[in-house]
Write a structure and sequence with these properties.
heterodimer, A: about 375 residues, mainly alpha, B: about 500 residues, alpha+beta, 5-stranded antiparallel sheet, 15 helices, 10 strands, disordered C terminus, UPF0353/GerABKA_families (chain B), membrane (chain B), transmembrane helix (chain B)
């Protein structure tokens, strides 16, 4: 089970863009209005910093996953305790993505299909992938679909270009100011920052090193650029007021494609992009959750057995989230941005990095 | 006598011939009891049977036997009336030196030689047999390939005779690097198999793997190379073929030059090539004789058709059932009016029509020539007109099904096409149940399956996923030949040594 740097690039890219293009945009536009693009630039930079820290940390232990080296850095018990937030985060991510997928599918294509069918089929495919092929299959599938999806995205940007209206972006900065822009950046950065799960993927890379770090940063930068383009397009199409009220603004924008009276409503192709990318994200997260849990209990070899537990648990959690139906703002803002972003993406990697460099220095002396 | 054979074999010693000619002939007659094609010809001088010739009727050159074996024998026996014992060299010397002759002492070997088509000569007073190689079997002439036709390029195809096939290869590859290892498989049929590879180009581990997998085969008979195929495949449960077959020597040769291994089976005009990749199944021989710009263009048309054959019916079903908004309004109107009065839902309609099409195709394959036109007229009339006129099936569905049917024959490799033709049905069901969502999920699962296939250690989707950028110029485009100078990294002898001369001519 090995992946190479190119596959890692596509994996991170697909993990970042699919869900971000659809979900976080509304939250950002609500607070940063027409200056959302500044928020996205800010988020891109912050995302790069977060990724860099995580990659730096991982390249110190290129043959170990986060679970292993956290124990090596902090000692057995502290190391095991400190990774628990990550497990919570991963389960959280999986059920959230699946819930969003379900909402999206129900809203746009299958109006009457019960939730368990949609969730169940998706989890089934993800389970098959992870069980049958592991990380290698995920890497190759990302590599296979990535370029195709890029072509579709570029086509969407091209075909919607005639709806764009430059003055929608004005006035710059005057209406919003620093506070709202930074606040708007939090949502995208909290999702761009998910690249920190590279700490679990690092040891699976064939020759981990400088090239791997470059691929990771490139992937995050590339997805930040795509997201920036996306938000620019949305604002220039609908204006800040309307797009702040749409649930899936990017998707609505694609629906406006109208060319030669024949090419219209390209939305299901964008849905394909989105489905494949959330599939990649789900498989990666499910893989690292099972593998991580197996490592956490000290039985790395039986990670496939753990998967038999993780997949049904995800299903149950998702169904729970769907039945309870908490508001989307609560899930993203109150939990994700307040806890996951500062703790999992910033604090823990930084702490590990600092402690490991102190240990290194102590050792040298 | 039978008891004797069992006792000797029990002791583990090979059964030997006796100096007694009558005994030996009787032993042979017992072995070939009720085998009416075995001929015995006695050579009696003065009432005494001095020698017996045994051969299979129809497998050896009778004229040559008369002229080069029987005549010298009779002359020899006329000259010496004494029964000569144990003088192999002298006896061998009576035949003309160009005749291939060898001496064997074991009964088993005589039997084997006779069955191979050679002529056994048993003589009185000698505990050995001379085996003369005068095999002459009926064979057809080298003909044009039937399943892989080309516009430009060589017209000869492999045929049933193993040696002719190897000669077709050797003719094109005048190099001692071309190795043709021979082995026999099948406990009963004893079929000759040849493993061919280019020493110095191929990875030794690949040859070793092929050899090991072949040797593991335990089977009574190899009737056709497909028998071998299913024994050495990596994933038997996959719908995709993982071993390429070809009847074109030029394709086999270019595969050899690419570092692949070929398996030639006697009595089969199809040569197996391992390992196969998905893309090699989509490359036609003509791609390499046409100008590269046109070849690239045609290749993309082929890719489109190939994937159309998988996707078109299910896309139609998904779009008309679940996502009408995607279809342009005028088209929706015409589809809706065509579907008016059709009692079946689109997915059932599609399933029925696809089913009928596959049935027609299957029946058309086996039709006796005399009834062919009748069935095709009935098929065309029933499917093309009557069902539509009767309002059972809608016109767009007929268009979709016939387009799909044509597209499914755009595959250069027949059994890759069958994989897609079959996968169309579950995909249709997925589209009928979950619409476009079902299609995407099915495609994802299918692509996961395809990227995890690894025939003989080479990823099935290589060089696209996992990507080898140096080799994409034969997948996404067909680059000018001087630019295609790399072996697949998985087939190269050592890492980073995939450079080769621009010599691909497939």
């Amino acid at each position: 089970m090995k992946i190479n740097n190119r596959q890692l690039f596509w994996m991170i890219l697909m993990l970042e863009i699919g869900i971000n293009l659809l979900i976080t945009m509304t939250a950002t536009i609500q607070s940063a209005k027409q200056d959302s693009w500044i928020s996205y630039i800010l988020a891109g930079v912050m995302g790069l910093v977060i990724t860099y820290v995580a990659a730096k940390l991982s390249s110190r232990y290129p043959r170990q996953t986060l679970i292993e080296y956290s124990a090596a850095i902090l000692g057995k018990w502290a190391g095991k305790l400190i990774v628990i937030p990550f497990f919570l985060q991963w389960f959280w991510v999986m059920s959230l993505i699946l819930r969003d997928e379900f909402l999206f599918i129900r809203l746009n294509v299958l109006y009457k299909t019960p939730a368990w069918v949609i969730i169940g089929t998706m989890i089934g495919v993800v389970f098959y992938t992870v069980y049958h092929g592991g990380i290698e299959a995920i890497g190759r599938v990302s590599e296979l679909w990535g370029p195709i999806l890029m072509v579709i995205l570029v086509l969407t940007f091209g075909l919607t270009a005639n709806n764009l209206n430059w003055p929608m972006l004005l006035p710059v900065y005057a209406d919003t100011g620093f506070g709202p822009i930074v606040e708007g950046a939090l949502a995208p950065v909290s999702l761009l920052g998910e690249a920190v799960l590279l700490m679990m993927l690092f040891p699976f890379v064939e020759h981990p090193g400088k090239e791997t770090r470059k691929a990771l940063l490139l992937a995050v930068a590339f997805s930040a650029v795509l997201l920036l383009l996306g938000v620019l397009w949305v604002i220039m199409t609908f204006g800040p007021e309307v797009s702040g009220r749409l649930q899936f603004p990017f998707f609505e924008m694609v629906k406006l494609v109208y060319l030669m009276e024949f090419i219209q409503n390209m939305d299901i192709f964008v849905m394909a992009v989105w489905l494949v990318s959330i599939f990649v994200k789900l498989s990666i997260v499910m893989f690292i959750t099972s593998y991580g849990a197996a490592q956490w209990t000290g039985k790395t070899r039986s990670w496939k057995k753990v998967l038999w537990g993780v997949a049904p648990l995800t299903f149950i959690l998702t169904m729970l989230v769907i039945t309870l139906n908490p508001p989307a703002g609560l899930l993203l803002k109150s939990v994700w941005i307040r806890y996951v972003l500062p703790v999992n993406m910033v604090a823990i990697p930084l702490l590990l990095l600092v402690v490991s460099s102190i240990r290194k220095r102590v050792k040298r002396q | 006598m039978e008891q004797q054979t069992t006792t000797t074999s029990n002791q583990g010693l090979p059964e030997m011939l006796y100096p007694d000619l009558a005994y030996n002939v009787e032993r042979m007659q017992l072995e070939f009891l009720n085998c009416s094609d075995i001929l015995y010809r006695n050579c009696s001088i003065g009432g005494l049977n001095r020698a017996t010739l045994i051969y299979v009727d129809g497998m050896c050159d009778v004229q040559a036997v008369d002229e080069f074996v029987l005549q010298p024998l009779i002359e020899h026996f006329r000259r010496s009336s004494m029964v000569d014992e144990g003088r192999e060299v002298e006896l061998k010397g009576i035949f003309i030196p160009t005749l291939k002759i060898r001496i064997v002492y074991e009964t088993k070997e005589v039997i084997k030689a006779v069955l191979r088509g050679e002529t056994a000569i048993l003589t009185e007073g000698n505990a050995f047999a001379m085996i003369a190689d005068l095999i002459k079997m009926e064979k057809r002439a080298i003909e044009e390939p039937t399943s892989e036709k080309v516009v430009r390029g060589p017209r000869d195809a492999f045929m049933e005779t193993l040696r002719t096939n190897t000669s077709l290869l050797r003719r094109r590859l005048r190099s001692s690097q071309l190795k043709l290892e021979s082995m026999t498989l099948g406990n009963v049929t004893e079929t000759d198999i040849v493993i061919g590879y280019m020493e110095g180009i191929v990875k030794e581990s690949l040859v070793k793997e092929v050899r090991a997998r072949l040797q593991k085969i335990q089977i009574d008979g190899i009737i056709h190379s497909s028998n071998i195929e299913e024994f050495i495949e990596d994933n038997v449960f996959s719908p995709f073929p993982q071993i390429q077959n070809t009847e074109r020597p030029d394709v086999a040769v270019s595969s050899l030059l690419e570092g692949k291994v070929i398996i030639i089976t006697d009595n089969t005009p199809f040569v197996l090539i391992v390992p196969m990749t998905y893309w090699s199944g989509l490359q036609a021989a003509d791609d390499y004789t046409d100008r590269y710009i046109y070849a690239t263009f045609v290749r993309w048309i082929r890719y489109t058709f190939v994937h159309t054959s998988l996707l078109l019916p299910s896309l139609y079903v998904a779009l008309t059932t679940y996502h009408l908004q995607v279809i342009p309004t005028p088209l929706v109107v015409s589809i809706a009016s065509a579907r008016e009065g059709v009692p079946l839902p689109a997915v059932i309609e599609a399933l029925i029509m696809e089913f009928i099409f596959e049935g027609l195709r299957e029946a058309g394959l086996r039709l006796p020539q005399q009834v062919g036109p009748a069935v095709s007229i009935a098929g065309a009339l029933v499917i093309g007109q009557a069902v539509v006129a009767a309002g059972i099936i809608s016109t767009p569905m007929v268009i979709i099904v016939s387009l799909t049917g044509i597209a499914s024959f755009a595959f250069p490799l027949y059994n890759l096409g069958t994989a897609y033709r079959m996968l169309r049905f579950p995909l249709l069901v997925a589209a009928g149940v979950l619409g476009f969502y079902g299609i995407v999920l099915f495609l994802i699962a299918l692509s996961v399956h395809m990227v995890t296939l690894k025939p003989f250690g080479v990823p099935y989707m290589a060089p696209y996923a996992p990507m080898a950028p140096g080799n994409l110029n034969d997948v996404l485009v067909r680059a000018p030949k001087p630019r295609m100078r790399r072996l697949l990294p998985w087939l190269a002898k050592s890492k980073g040594k995939s450079e080769r001369f621009p010599k691909r001519t497939k």
